[in-house]
Design brief:
single chain, globular, mainly alpha
Length: 474
């Protein structure tokens, strides 16, 4: 079935590229979403199965595939709305690359071999760069070259990590580089090789997870890509980066370097929060503001992994909820640009009066993303801070809370200014383009999911998360 999925995606992507008819392209995108939905249901029905040797339908991949599929439906819809006020010159290229990006992310979610993961991660770099350059402006070109260069550098660093992992397999009679085999061989391997391998993998794939020290890749990409693509980069690609790191972390969790890995993750998480707090306080572009918010969340995820225990559960739950909130806010920044013709916070204002539905999305989104009840993110972050208390990591707890306070202040200040304050650009006309309230439906649905999770977490999700972390030390 996974081979059928990839072949279907390839055919539909090529069809969208070469059949230069807008109506047919929309049909092809509809067919692809149907294929994506069908494949998602198939994965649920065939949990634990391995196909084509290199793909296993495990619990972690199933969680993030479900999130990706739901967000992809909204991404396609908002992409159509994005082009409703623009030239169709790039319409076909855009949607061809979009299919390729979603399919590449899906492949990375279920790849059970480090080399297979590496291949699909590289595929997301190629397809993602096509979408970042979509506007063909000088800044878009700069962001695209940065994306290609830094991601390629990250991929090369990750490949060095794979080489060191392969060195641990020498003489143990194991011929493949699956995560299960690495876990078996690593128990008796040289700890120095394992430390180097983990560091390289962490740094390399931080380009996708938007985690310190390679976080700048995602910041520039989110700023220049169309808002639907920004939503996909901040959700699907971030989750893919997490999976790529998490699988190696799990494979090495039974080795003597386990405690060392946890310390590295906590340090990286704190540095991510520090950078996010520093830049959020001076950020003036709405899209970049949201991009640095992603850095904050990935930093919390890294800290949560490093703590262990219930922190493992909280990390995955936080990523799921972050995906829905961040997608909603990116979609809304795109709509705000169509109405106000600016991404600058200082030039934005009175959004609640101009477009009440969009203003409510920003207001509810602010409550959700800052973990204020009834946001489900409050539950995830509460679990993280409880873990810090129980483990006695008081310094990490105090520093994290302090940095989060700055981030919450910065986000609140800018979002409330956009929706309530008068803009500095008084007297200038906004563009005469109407955004229909129905276009905000997907945002309200996603934010509703986040709020619902504050009161109840579906048992199927709880079971899948517990299965995903079952192999980690308690």
């Amino acid at each position: 079935m996974i081979l059928v999925y990839f072949i279907s995606a390839l055919i539909l992507s090529l069809g969208a590229l070469f059949i230069k008819k807008k109506s047919i392209t929309k049909i092809l995108l509809g067919i692809f979403l149907l294929v994506q939905l069908t494949f998602t249901f198939y994965v649920f029905e065939n949990a634990g199965n391995t196909e084509l040797i290199y793909f296993t339908f495990d619990a972690l991949g199933t969680i993030f595939l479900t999130v990706l599929t739901l967000i992809s439906i909204a991404v396609v819809y908002h992409g159509f709305r994005y082009f409703s006020s623009r030239s169709t010159e790039r319409f076909f290229f855009y949607h061809s690359a979009l299919i390729g990006l979603i399919a590449s992310i899906t492949g990375a979610y279920f790849a059970n071999d480090v080399t297979a993961v590496w291949i699909f991660v590289e595929a997301t770099t190629l397809t993602g760069s096509m979408l970042i350059y979509h506007k063909k402006t000088a800044t878009a070109l700069e962001a695209t070259w940065k994306y290609i260069f830094l991601c390629s550098t990250g991929i090369a660093i990750a490949y060095l990590g794979i080489l060191f992992l392969s060195m641990t397999m020498t003489g143990v009679g194991i011929q493949d580089l699956s995560f299960d085999s690495i876990g078996k061989a690593a128990a008796g391997a040289n700890p120095l090789y394992l430390k180097i391998a983990f560091l390289f993998v962490l740094v390399g794939y931080s380009t996708k997870m938007e985690l310190f020290p390679m976080h700048t890749v995602g910041i520039d990409a989110n700023s220049e890509a169309p808002s639907p693509i920004g939503a996909l980069i901040s959700t699907g690609l971030v989750n893919m980066g997490f999976i790529s790191i998490f699988r190696v972390y799990t494979a090495l969790s039974g080795t003597p370097i386990f405690s060392w890995m946890n310390h590295i993750l906590i340090i990286v998480g704190l540095l991510s929060l520090l950078v996010a707090a520093g830049y959020e306080l001076k950020m003036q572009y709405s899209s970049r503001m949201l991009a640095y918010s992603s850095l904050e969340f990935t930093g919390l995820v890294a800290i949560s992994l490093g703590i262990g225990g219930v922190g493992y559960y909280a990390a995955i739950l936080l990523l799921v909820l972050h995906a829905f909130v961040k997608a909603s806010l990116f979609f809304q920044t795109g709509q705000m640009y169509r109405i106000l013709n600016t991404h600058l916070v200082e030039e934005s204002g009175n959004y609640m009066k101009i477009y009440p539905a969009g203003g409510m999305v920003f207001l509810i989104g602010l409550v959700c993303i800052t973990a204020i009840p009834p946001s489900g993110i409050f539950v995830a972050e509460l679990l993280i801070f409880k873990s810090l208390v129980y483990s006695g990591n008081w310094f990490v707890l105090i520093l994290s809370l302090g940095l989060l306070a700055f981030i919450i202040f910065a986000l609140s200040n800018r979002i409330l200014k956009m929706i309530f304050s008068k803009p500095k650009r008084l007297g200038e006309e906004i563009i005469n383009y109407t955004v229909k309230p129905v276009e905000t439906l997907s945002q309200f649905i996603f934010l509703g999911i986040v709020i619902f999770f504050c009161f109840y977490q579906p048992q199927v999700l709880v079971d899948l998360i517990n299965q995903s972390i079952a192999g980690l030390p308690k």
